[in-house]
Amino acid sequence: MKTTRRRIIAQALAAPFILTGGLAGPAHATAATPRRLWDGIGSPVGMAFDAQGHLFVAEWGPGRISRFAPDGGREVFAEGLAGPSGLAIAPDGTIFVASYSTDVIWRFSADGVRGTHVTGLATPAGLSFDLAGRLMVANRRTNQILAVEDGTLTPVIDDLRTPVGVVQTPDGGFVVSNIGGGVTILRPDGTRVEAGQEFRTPGPGVAMTKTGRVFVVDYGGTTVREILMDGGSKPLAGGLSSPVGLVVTPDETAVMTATWGEGAIFHIPL
């Protein structure tokens, strides 16, 4: 059992990066079975992989960032943080973490040196990067998605419903999860489509493959769902207790989700 678990972890964290051509089709109707990899995670939210295959997880309750190695090892990367929520890693290895409690975004070097990246936010939740490489912030209290560039905050999307996560799709559109209700698809022409009918409460976990498949956690429920660009969604996996964090594995064969209820990290095959 232990050998099998370590093999799954190694495959999930260290597999080579693979791109598949074209947009993937809808998720399979049959939901995948999540496999538990780690326990004892303290109210996890943001998740991201670095270029070396390490998984970083923001743990809100303990106020820390944990790092999980490709061989299954685990260590505390940073601690003493106030309400770490969203987490994103830039191509140069810089790690960005949103503080939901103090309205700032920190930046960390790969060896753990911390600095303040930007202030003046309003309960920042999920973080991601747009197609131009700008850091995007789901700024919950102002109902906006903001972009950070050279220390300046620029509104990207307004008039949302308490947004907590966002990705920009390959066509230049966006998918936003709103903890106040619904998943908003913003098409490149500005048209908005609501795709959250099957969600109880969409959470911060929004993840996208390089080919444009988008997945969102149902924090108020038990599922991870794939968003369909016509406004529908399909279950990817169920039986989870308040999934919050979500990230696609480097080889794009699976997603990893972290659950608030179980305090655990799960591997879900695509």
Automatic annotation (TrEMBL):
<keyword id="KW-0732">Signal</keyword>
<protein>
    <recommendedName>
        <fullName>Serine/threonine protein kinase</fullName>
    </recommendedName>
</protein>
<dbReference type="InterPro" id="IPR051344">
    <property type="entry name" value="Vgb"/>
</dbReference>
<feature type="signal peptide">
    <location>
        <begin position="1"/>
        <end position="29"/>
    </location>
</feature>
<dbReference type="InterPro" id="IPR011042">
    <property type="entry name" value="6-blade_b-propeller_TolB-like"/>
</dbReference>
